[in-house]
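>> Question from a student workshop board

For tomorrow's exercise we were told to take the sequence and the ligand below, predict the bound structure, and bring the output to class. My setup keeps failing. Could a helper post the expected result so I can at least see what it should look like? The ligand is D-glutamic acid.
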Amino acid sequence: MSDNRPIGVFDSGIGGLTVLREIINAVPGESTIYFGDNSRAPYGTKSRSTIIRYSLQNMRFLENKDVKMIVVACNTASAYAYEELKSRAKVPVVEVVTPGADEACRATKNGKIGIIATKGTISTGVYKAAVEKRAEELGMKDIEIFQQACPLFVSLAEEGWWDTEITRLTAEEYLKPLKEAGIDTLVMACTHYPLLSKVIGEVMGESVVLVNTGVATAKVVKSLLESEGISSGNNGADSLREFYTSDEPGLFEQVAAPFLGEGLPSGTRHFTTDRYEVDV
Ligand code: DGL
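>> Workshop helper replied:
Here is what the output should look like for this input. Compare the format with yours to find the bug.
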């Protein structure tokens, strides 16, 4: 039995497109609906209750579109709102924290793992806890975790300054403590950061493995589609790509196109989810 309903993906804005890109690569035969809550971004500086409310509203929008799975393509929303989303969802929900933690534990050789994210994600401690839990499950001892909030990275990525001198200087400043700590694995625990991975990689040096949570999440999406028996069975030619933003579609496409390549996204529509009433 094949299920041709789309996969719903949401983020605070355009960063989640880095996750969408990996999902499209991993399961090209699946249709997707992407919602970027650009008018209310960034989430990384907002309070817990606000992020939970926004996330529930975004989920409601996607459920109204009859999606078969929801991917929370935002680390901040995953860190704050996943439990709440999961408990209220009608379909499976995939978050980005656990897959990233798993990948980091498998990649490290010296047990020193760095996590970079928004202030919000770091302050929840959810990522650190996820890495510790996964390390324990894998029987790993002596894991050391070093966290660093890199708030300016989001603005640099949104600005399209993916490989500029100012980005390099900012990265050198933020990443200095992690370099000094001798980490060998760095989790880019924010959807925007993979866009800066060239600079981040150069600053950290070749010996440090960069974990892109989008790649790890796409693997989870693929295996969940199979285990739930809800794959589309298509080969990719008929897959639909829909995009919605709560801000101006033209602006969204201008900034978002380089994320996905191949002329995507196009035909983006405007929608605001703050019309949905949710109990938080
Ligand atoms: N999408 C957010 C995340 O992954 C980054 C941007 C924001 O703060 O809204 O944490």
